[in-house]
Amino acid sequence: MTLTLAQARTILDKTLAVAREKKFKPLGVAVVDSRGALRAYAEEDGNPILRSKIASGKAFGAVAFGTGSRRLHQIGLLMRDKDGALVGAVGVSGDTSDNDELAAIAGIEAAGFTAETGG
User: Fold this and answer.
1) Tens digits of per-residue pLDDT, 31-68?
2) Is the pTM of this model over 0.85?
3) Beta bridge partners of 76
4) Cα-Cα-Cα-Cα dihedral of 23, 48, 75, 108, to 10°?
């Protein structure tokens, strides 16, 4: 299964909506497909200049290593479809690791995928 732009945007929008609802610090969110190609990125106002590189690196690292990056001490969550096939990953940076992960899981589930944290 491929990750569509519409699905990537759903993930992005829901991740940021949960962060605002819970009053998290401003986030950067990167969504990559199973090849590690960036499909969507957004950064909230008030982020430092390198936030995009951090979030994208977390997502790409999760796909490259084939594991949720909690195992790598980062927050980059793999996304799998209903059959367990790898669809891509989400990298979030900006708040605590637990909060980043919580927001990413909400985004992944909103798109109909299952999150794999590696924990």
Assistant:
1) 999 999 999 999 999 988 888 888 888 888 788 777 66
2) yes
3) 91
4) 60
